[in-house]
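Friendly challenge for the regulars: who can give me the structure tokens for this chain first? No prize, just bragging rights.
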Amino acid sequence: MGRTLKYAAAAIAVAAAGLYINNTNLLTAHRAGKPVLLAHRGMAQRFDERDLKNDTCTAALMLPPTHDYLENTIRSMRAGFEAGADIVEIDVHPTTDNEFAVFHDWTLDCRTNGHGVTRGHTMAELKRLDIGYGYTSDSGKTFPFRGKGIGMMPSLGEVLATFPDQRLLVNVKSRDPSEGEKLAAAALREIARQLFRRHLDQRDRGDRQTGQRTEITYQLRKPGASCPVRAAGRASS
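First reply, four minutes later:
Bragging rights claimed.
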């Protein structure tokens, strides 16, 4: 009996050691060069991270602010990149008018002056909200960003157009695989629009130099899709 207990204790100790080592970086090869810096939601307000739950309103737990940036806004993303971030992480929800809103929370009630599920609104409706409405660091005595976040919730298209050459990590706030496909299609459409605008700029510069008009047509094909994602038709007049 004693020997059995010793074997069991040894097996438990080995298993515990294996779990510990597997959850450390001891078995991971270190990459050469500097680390990749990621700005979570851009430049965001900090909050008390103790005893958080899935439905905790973190805007109501904000620490005394040291800057005036609001998360997931164009301004906060730009600040993140300017501070040296290699990647900015953003959160998106599909809207009822087939766009993607850049916003973290599943519902609007915590952080904004709106109500209900984020994805239950149009992008135009979300644009009218004050996304700084609910932030407080003193249990509701003051709200330093109230009135300062009106119209600042961007669409994914706006973000991609503003940062065409930057790296973004897009977090779809859903477990529905089809929404990932919708996101990929939306991103492809925006990339196609950007490419087309660049072609137009290049064409116009060339036309001014040569006095001739050119025609530009092109399309992007989503991998595995039967139909291409069209960027535009004829660019000449």
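The CA atoms of residues 178 and 184 lie 10 Å apart. Residues 177-210 form the longest helix (34 residues). Your move, everyone else.
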